[in-house]
Structure formats: structure tokens, C-alpha cells
Amino acid sequence: MVSTTTLADLAALVGGQLEGDGQVTISGAASISRSQSGDITLADVPRLTKQLDESPASAVVVVTGFPPTAQPRIVVENVHAAFAQIVSHFRPQYTSACSGCSESAHIASSAQIGPDAVVHPFATIEQEVVIESGAEIHSGVRIMAGCRIGADAILFPNVVLYPGTIIGARSVIHAGAVLGGYGFGYHLVDGAHVRKAQLGTVEIGCDVEIGAGTTIDRGTYDATIIDDGTKIDNHVQIGHNCHIGKHNLICSQVGVAGSCTTGDYVVMAGQVGLCDHLHIGDRAVLGAKAGVMNDVPEDAVFIGAPATPERDQWRMWGHVRQLPNMRRQLKKLCQKLDRESESASDPEQQDAA
Amino acid sequence: MVSTTTLADLAALVGGQLEGDGQVTISGAASISRSQSGDITLADVPRLTKQLDESPASAVVVVTGFPPTAQPRIVVENVHAAFAQIVSHFRPQYTSACSGCSESAHIASSAQIGPDAVVHPFATIEQEVVIESGAEIHSGVRIMAGCRIGADAILFPNVVLYPGTIIGARSVIHAGAVLGGYGFGYHLVDGAHVRKAQLGTVEIGCDVEIGAGTTIDRGTYDATIIDDGTKIDNHVQIGHNCHIGKHNLICSQVGVAGSCTTGDYVVMAGQVGLCDHLHIGDRAVLGAKAGVMNDVPEDAVFIGAPATPERDQWRMWGHVRQLPNMRRQLKKLCQKLDRESESASDPEQQDAA
Amino acid sequence: MVSTTTLADLAALVGGQLEGDGQVTISGAASISRSQSGDITLADVPRLTKQLDESPASAVVVVTGFPPTAQPRIVVENVHAAFAQIVSHFRPQYTSACSGCSESAHIASSAQIGPDAVVHPFATIEQEVVIESGAEIHSGVRIMAGCRIGADAILFPNVVLYPGTIIGARSVIHAGAVLGGYGFGYHLVDGAHVRKAQLGTVEIGCDVEIGAGTTIDRGTYDATIIDDGTKIDNHVQIGHNCHIGKHNLICSQVGVAGSCTTGDYVVMAGQVGLCDHLHIGDRAVLGAKAGVMNDVPEDAVFIGAPATPERDQWRMWGHVRQLPNMRRQLKKLCQKLDRESESASDPEQQDAA
Hints:
Three copies of one chain form a homotrimer. By secondary structure, chain A is of the alpha/beta class.
């Protein structure tokens, strides 16, 4: 832990403009809802003014042009960059204590480890693996035969790569992710499910991020591909033979069945599910829990299960909420018409009316 | 395996009242549907009488006041406590064969390991980690720099804690769980998703249980918090900056997006999904597969997607099931009115009628 | 990598009939959509003819009777078997470089390891574990006390088995799966959730396959059972006390709550959820994302949430899509009737009409 400092010193640290008492003592940094007396907090949009007024925080980092605040403040152009610097000042991030290849790692003699690559204790690197310069392989990572890890890639603890998996430069694979497992494909032979060929691989592009516990299955004959710049959250399942495009954002617990393809900049919110062999067009957005059974065109927004264009789905949900009213109206109409038919067919009653 | 025993001995073991032949030989314990001749079984509610009559079990543990049974029996106040004792008699639970710190573990010199703590082979404990007395760190657990593990906590095999994670006393983290991974937050810079600051931590309270494979992301600037006594099942995803209250029950495959907060005693059934920045009030219950898009008040029960108060949702589902009838009624009305208008506007037809 | 070869040689390799120029040089194998010049591809159904015509592939493996193709070809009875052989020719699958028990594994002295079993580095095998002949235990697998692993079973890296878990012969457990964790069952005592007994085990039959990251909880008193021949995909959760029948197919991200039973040949598509204590009959099929709240009979197909027989559910969805029309019709009827009543009750207007 770092000792306390003054607001003036923090303003100097981030190159911001000090407004108010620079000698106020700051001992920590926290977001508004968590901040306490002694903390500096941040506010990036004017609607936070009220929350800020009620906050016990002792100072605040605000964007240029922010309304007046009760607290003394540091004014900057980029609130988040400045605040991140301040947080790191109070709570320095840990850096790896490891360099080179740990003697407690298991590295096959045919593996090639680039200069400046780091291999932590208890990592397993099998035959013919290539790890390029600057890559970091954390403790307990299992890299099976023939995999290639690009420069400056990071594999967090206990990641597992099946044979032949390729990871691009600067990609980050989070703890416990499993890449290259067998696809889920069987045919029935004499009453038993027999596994189809699982001879393909997994190829992860550059600057990809893959979340903790996520699984990506190898292709049948080819590679399952995740293209450059795509970010995948935790617990996602990508089936065999998929080709996910560039710069997709795939949120937690999404399941993509086999042989799907996506364009670039596709967004899938949490718990979305895709049937197999679908194509999702460039920039399409799939809302949380969408159950997608057909191709989705470019720039479309689909929600619901079965997935439907957003506007239509909201309308349908609106109509469903009107069902009690509709039934009531319908009932009245029926009664009314019944009464009328009765009176029409009954002269006595008609006279009496 | 333990040799057979008599029912009288088992009655003595659990301090229960023997009814029937105490000399019957018992060789195992199983629940009713799985029990075989020679087994003792259990019945905690009267409606099990019939199933019990048809069971081949040789004896039964019942609660005081249970109706007459075909089998000789042991009568107790707490059926489950007594039966657990009997099961453990026939199939003793394994206790850890490990004590102290394994020489095959990797422990940084700056880590502090409390007395009576156990560290199994191939565990990795990085710099400045503190493990308090009585904690058990199983094989393959990865505790990264600066984490703190409370007294008597248990980390099952292959758990991964990212730097700075805090685990409270007596908490249990199941195999393969990953705590403290980066939150899923990016901003678009020149067409590429750039990761936002992920400088926070994860803080797990006391007496918390976290399921196998569950992931809890670190906060942006602060901690993601799981409060005392909360129990989380397998495959759950808790996003960055969430604050889960005390004594929540969160079932398998639930996904909670970033910055959500919950009160105390909240229950989320399996596969529930929450949008980000929601608040779920004390004692609220979210039914299985609920897709929650708005705050949920205290004591409310919400189901469906979009999540809706239980009563309203069941009503809507009921109305939807009535749609075929409604369409039929509507069609008839239209036909009827059409006929009437036709006859009204057609004097010929009217005369003919 | 293997050097190029001729189509004639490949035809000889797979015992197929060569049609066209056998001297064409082949340097790789890929499916149609991924194939490039120099590749051999495959086509198993006639509707691929057009795609094949447009493909740059230099040759193709086709089934007997396939329509004429632009490319020279190899004709076989079993396209997939032949193509798998060709893929393996160009990209030989890695075989384990490990034999016997690694000196870097931790094996308790009371464990029994059968002949021809393989234990990789950094695997942990605790007391009284039995591993039968031919089983392969990959790196980082944690086998806790008293487990039994059948002959020729394969446990991929970082699998965790809690004490007492049993794996049948030839079963395959993929990376990071966790078997035998505690079930999610608590009772409330003085405001705190107290874990119920978790004294049972997990028993996996023969020829079972379990996906990466999948979790199967131990039974309360008995075993949670997965029967022979059943295949389970990645990220699946099977709750405590379940008995899954033979030859089931359970796709990714399915959640089965506690004490469910299934017949044989049941299929559950992705992201299906089952409430606890349900029975799913033989050969029943549960569609993707189905939310099952009641027993499902033999041979039934259920979809939707709440799950409904397929035909009824599609009809309901169809009706819901008709709601805008229904509302329009209903509105018109109401207006019409209102007009008529008005004119009926207003002699002036009636005259004017």
C-alpha cells in the first residue's frame, strides 16, 4: 500500500488542472458509489452531479466543462485514463516475478521457446510446440503437441490447448479456457454413437481475447477460426468449424453451434444461442438470450427466441401484454352479438325490449 | 469398505429408537429409489410410505410419528443427520492425506503461510500472498500475487485466483473456478476494441461457497464483492463491479452482467440472466431462465424473458395458450357480421331470408 | 508437414477408384468452402455439385454415383472415412510422447496404476486410486482419493475428479471437466444456508464422452450416474442424484437440475434447462433453449420455455405472430358494432343512413 498524498500531487501525476484546495489529503481511489472520506473519485458525465454531491469522497476527477462540484477537483480531458493512473498509484498492479523458463515447467526437448518468452512453474509444453518472443505462459498451462503461440501472447493459468492450436500475436487467453477439444459430432452405428473425425485445429488471430473457461472446439477437417481483434467473454462455447469474423464482441455464456460464420463487428449479448450452419452479417447485434435459428443480415438487431428483428419482437411482446384486454373485448363482442341474435330471432323478446 | 452390521448397532450409532427386528443384517445405505436388499434407506415425509412398501430395502430410518412400515426401522428426530452418519459408516469419507506445505508446491519466498494451512503438490503461490491458518490449498491451485486466503478456507484443485483476490474465512471455492479475471469492457479506437482499465479486485466474504468452473471478474477500479454466506453454484458468471449481497443462492449457469447489485437472501434459479447495472431487492426470487432487464423490488418473484412478476407471466402464458380459441372466435364473429352486413345491404337477399 | 503427392497415390491410399487425371499434384486437404488450388476436397451429397464447380479445389473425393465433376476425383463408398485418411496423411495427428508414469507426476503410494497406463507430468493421483490398464491421464489432471479409472479411459489435461469418482472403460473426459463436486443443496439454519450432506459419488459408465469444462455433481447419499454410451458436450451441468440413461446426447450449456432421470437415446440440444426431479422418456428430444418444467414422455419432441410439444409450440408462436392482425380485426369489429348500435339507437342517424 502507498502512503497518502495531496490532491495537488495527484493533479501533477495526471497532468490535470487543479481546482480547489490542493492540500487536501487523499488516501485512496474509488468509484462514486463505493467512495469514502479520504478517497478521490471520478465523474465522466454531468448527470453524476447529484450523486457526487451526496458522496463522502474528498476529491474528484472530472472532464473539462463539468458543472461545479462540492469537492475540490482535477479537470482532465480523459477522465478514465487519469483515474486509472491514480488507482494504479494507490494500488500498484503486480508484475510477473517470473522471467525465462521456470525449472519447474515441463518443456519437451523439441519445443522452441523464443527470447523473452516466460514460462511459469508447472506449465506443460509438449513436443514441437513453438512459443514466440515475449509470450507469457502462466502456471499450469497445458500446451499439447504442435501448438504455436504468437509473440507477446498471454496464456493465463490452467489454459489447455489441444494439439495443433495456433494463437496469434498479442492475444490473451484467460484462465481455464480450453481450445481445440473435439467437436460434438457422432453418427449412430449399431445403436452406439461413434465420434466423427476430429482432425482439424483451432486458429486464433492476433489481438484476440478469450475469456475464462471458454471452450472452442477443433474443426472436423479444417480449422475453427477466430479472426483478429475479436473479444470473447467467459464461459462461451464455439462449436467445430465455426469462422468468427474480425472485431466481434461475444459476451458471456453464448453458445455458437458448429459451422457458423460471422462477419466483422458482430455483437452477441449474454446467453445467446445459435443453431448450426448460420451466418450472422457484419455489424449485426444479437440481444441477450436470443435464440437464433436463421441467418441474420448485416446491421440487423435481433432479439428473443426464436430470434426476431428487435422492433417486431418488442411489438409482439407488447401485443402479448394486451392479450387480457383483447380477451375481454372479444368476450363482450360475443355476448353482445349473442344477445342481438337472440332478440332478432325472438319477436316476443324484441317487443319486450 | 466396512463389513456388515446389525440394525440394532446402527440404531445405537445414531442414538435412534429401534422398532422391529434389531438383528437384521445391513450391508449398505441408499435412498429409496436406489436401495436394494441388505440396504437401509430413509423416509422423511409420510407420502413416501407407498414407495417404501415397494422397496427391497431391509430397513429404514424414519422421522418420529412416521406411519407403520413393512421394514424394521430406526426412529429419529432428524432423519437426514442420522442417515448421513450411517452412510459415512458404510462409506467413510476420505480425509486429506496431506499436511503442511508440499515440497512439490511452488511457493514464493514472500508468501506467508499460516500454521495448520495445507498446500498440496503442484499448487502455485506467488509473491506477497497471505494464507491464513487452517486453509487448504489443493493440487494445481494458482494463487497469483497479493491474494489473501482466510482461515479454514478450502480451494479445490485447479482454482485460479488473479492478483489481489481476497477470500474470506471458511469459504469454499470449487475446482476450476476463476476469480479476478478481467471484466469484459472495451472502447472502440480506430476500429479496434481496446480493453478498459481492469484495476479492481475480487473480494469474497466469509462462509461463501463458489461452484466448479464459476467465474467472477475483477472490478474496473473497485472490488467485485460477494458478501458473507452467499452460495454460488457451478458455471455461474458474475461480471465486473457487481456487489452480491449476503446469503444469496445463485444456481448453475446464471449470468450476472457488470455493475449489478443484490440485496440479502436473493435467489436466482438456473440459467437466469441479468442485464448490467440492475438492482435486485432483498429476498427477491428469479425463476429459472428469467431474462431480467429492469430492477426487481424486494420480495418479488419474477419469471420469464423479459422477466415479469410471476402471476402476470403465468397469466400471459395462459392467454397465449388460448390464442387458437381466440382466433377461432374472432373468425366466427367476422363471418357473422359480414353475413349480416351483406343481408342488410342486399334487399334481395333480405327478402329471400 | 508432408510433401505433395499425386491424386493417383491418394486413390491408392484410400482404396478408391480414380476418375480423371491421376497425375494432378495435391498438397493439402480441406472442406469445399475452405479449399484452395492444390487441395483435395470432399462432397458427400449431390446438392454440393454447384459449390464444387465454383471451388478452386484441384480434386475431390465423392461417393459412388455422384454427378460429374469439373475436378478429377476419387470415388469411394465412405467419403468421410476416406477423406479422414487423406487429411491425416497431410497433417499427421500427434501421438502421445509419454509412456508409463512421469517422474514429475505425484502418485500416492497406495494408488494402483495398471500396466500400459500413462500418467503425464504434474498429474496428481491421491491415495487408494485405481487406474486400469491402458488409461491415459494427461498433465494436470487431479484424481482425488479412492477414484477408479477404467481401462483405456482418457482424461485430458486439468480434469478434476473429487474423491470416489468412478470412470468406466474407454470413456473420454475432456480438459477442465469437474466430476464429483458438492451438489447445490442447503437448508436455512438461523438465517444461514448450511450445506446438506454430500456423501454420494459420481459413476460414469463405459464409452461415455464428457466435454471440456462440464461439471457433474456427486449425489447426496448415492451416486450421480451417467450410463454407458452417453455423450455430453462442453459446459454442461448435471446436478446431484441425476441418473442419465444410455446413449443420450447432451449438447453444450445444458443444465440438468438435481434428481432428474432420463431414458435411453434422449437428445438435449444446446442451452436446455431441466427443473429438478423430472423424468425424460426414451428417445425424447428437447429443442435448443427448452425450459423443461414437467416430465417428458417417450419419443416426444419438446421446445420452448416453458417446454411444449413441438407442434403446439410452433402453432403458438405462429398465433403470436398473428396478434397484430387479430388486434386490427378486433378493433374494426368493435367500431362496426359501436356504429351499428349508435345508428340503431339514434332514429335520426338511421334515417340519414
